[in-house]
Task: inverse folding
């Protein structure tokens, strides 16, 4: 058994028996779901909850007496991979943000340019362009947004690079013909189904080298995650989208404004939930989709009207904001206390998802390495899966 497979077995066992911790849906809870954790959670005020939640080491030390195995599993850290020697910006990189540029440079520092390159879900093809400039024989960037393709093509022409765009839906079956055996296929921040497709098609074509940094694990075509590897299918955690979102809840700590907006969003979502339960007469949580932050700059009554429309509910004639916000306030700390426990599984769940992808590639005859390719201050989505056909 490979070392990655051993880690996967241990982690699967832990995640199976701690399911009651990470699978909770805090917005549906009316009380804390863990009697043994209740005293220590209730002893924390909001400032203490926030401080612990933002400090992983402190939060794990606090949890260790009750959940020693969960805390011990965090010792499984992934190695730091190569980093770019510098982040100096060439003229053509104008318009790429500093942190994005650092991610691209760090990703590029981890690949060798022996083969033609396929760049999957490329955006404007910044990574592909850098690799073409660094000496790749040819780069083909797949992207479905025609504007981004046109901008990328224009930049490639200006720089006289052998860099083409293929404007198509990555999920369309014909894109399988883009994968070749003698090739390096790269994907920087390709979302769920898109990177799953990338891995399957590359493996099927026998593509020599792969480098993938996954993101948005929850953006899959079905309701539940179907593990890629045989090992994953045997240890299936039956992950739904709510659980698949957990690894993405890691926030790069924002400033005061970000904190304030998060506070308003949580209060308003809960206040709307109280209101909708009264309108529908059903004591059941009704989730709202993600929405633009500008909706939080008006008042709660306007937000509630927007939310009623979203959910196809009759808009009440008058909305007593104070009443609904007061009810939400009682639930807000409960949600935060439950999230404080759930967040201690963010890394472990992401690791499980990464290992499932890595084991799939091992099963397909690849040598695989897994590590971090860039600093966490550049992006929390910083894991890189590299595979070479043996
Ligand atoms: C998170 S961005 C990453 C872009 C680029 N790799 C980067 O890191 O800057 C994901 C890209 O995938 C593209 N995309 C989304 N769905 C797609 C699909 N079905 N087919 C092709 N491209 C898609 C989006 O337009 C977007 O440019």
Result:
């Amino acid at each position: 058994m490979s070392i990655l497979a051993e880690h996967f077995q241990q982690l699967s066992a832990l995640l199976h028996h701690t399911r009651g911790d990470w699978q909770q849906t805090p917005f549906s809870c009316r009380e804390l779901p863990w009697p043994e954790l209740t005293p220590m959670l209730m002893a924390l005020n909001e400032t203490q909850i926030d401080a612990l939640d933002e400090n992983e080491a402190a939060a794990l030390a606090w949890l260790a007496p009750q959940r020693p195995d969960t805390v011990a599993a965090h010792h499984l850290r992934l190695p730091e991979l190569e980093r770019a020697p510098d982040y100096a910006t060439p003229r053509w990189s104008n318009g790429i943000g500093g942190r994005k540029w650092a991610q691209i440079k760090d990703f590029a520092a981890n690949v060798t340019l022996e083969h033609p390159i396929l760049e999957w879900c490329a955006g404007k093809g910044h990574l592909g362009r850098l690799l073409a400039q660094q000496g790749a024989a040819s780069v083909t960037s797949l992207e479905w947004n025609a504007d981004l393709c046109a901008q990328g093509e224009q930049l490639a022409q200006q720089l006289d690079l052998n860099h083409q765009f293929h404007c198509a839906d990555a999920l369309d079956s014909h894109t399988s013909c883009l994968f070749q055996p003698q090739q390096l296929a790269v994907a920087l921040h390709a979302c769920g189904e898109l990177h799953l497709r990338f891995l399957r098609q590359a493996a099927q074509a026998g593509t020599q080298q792969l480098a993938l940094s996954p993101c948005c694990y929850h953006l899959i075509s079905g309701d539940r995650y179907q593990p890629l590897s045989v090992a994953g299918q045997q240890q299936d955690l039956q992950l739904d989208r709510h659980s698949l979102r957990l690894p993405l809840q890691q926030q790069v700590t924002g400033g005061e404004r970000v904190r304030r907006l998060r506070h308003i969003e949580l209060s308003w979502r809960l206040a709307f939930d109280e209101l909708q339960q009264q309108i529908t007469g059903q004591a059941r949580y009704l989730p709202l989709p993600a929405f633009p932050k500008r909706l939080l700059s008006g008042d709660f009554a306007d937000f509630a009207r927007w939310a009623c429309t979203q959910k196809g509910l009759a808009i009440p004639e008058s909305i007593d904001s104070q009443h609904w916000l007061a009810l939400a306030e009682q639930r807000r700390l409960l949600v935060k206390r439950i999230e404080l426990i759930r967040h201690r599984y963010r890394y472990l769940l992401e690791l499980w998802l990464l290992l499932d992808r890595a084991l799939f590639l091992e099963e397909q005859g690849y040598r695989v390495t897994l590590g971090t390719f860039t600093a966490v201050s550049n992006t929390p989505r910083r894991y890189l899966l590299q595979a070479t056909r043996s």
